[in-house]
Amino acid sequence: MKTSTWTTMAVALAMTGMVRGENWASWRGPAGNGSTGKSGAPTEFAEGKGILWKTKLPGRGCSTPVVWGERIFLTTPIGEEDGVIALDLKGEELWRKTLGPLTPGRGQRVGSPANSSPVTDGKNVYVYFKSGNVAALTVEGELLWKLNLHEKYGEDKLWWDQGTSPVLAGGNLVIAVMQTEGKSYLVSLDPATGKEVWFTPRDYETTDESGDSYTTPHVVEIDGVETIVCWGADHLSGHDAKTGKELWKSAGFNPEMTKQWRVIASSVVTDGVVVVPFKRGDALGGLKLDGSSAKSDKDWLWRKDGMGTDASTPVAANGKVIFVKDGGKDRGKVTCLEARSGEVLWESMLPKSVSVYYSSPILAGDKLYVAREDGVILCGTVTAKGLEDIKESPLEEAVIASLVLVGDRILVRGDGHLFCIGK
Question: What is the mean pLDDT of residues 328-339?
Answer without folding.
Answer: 96
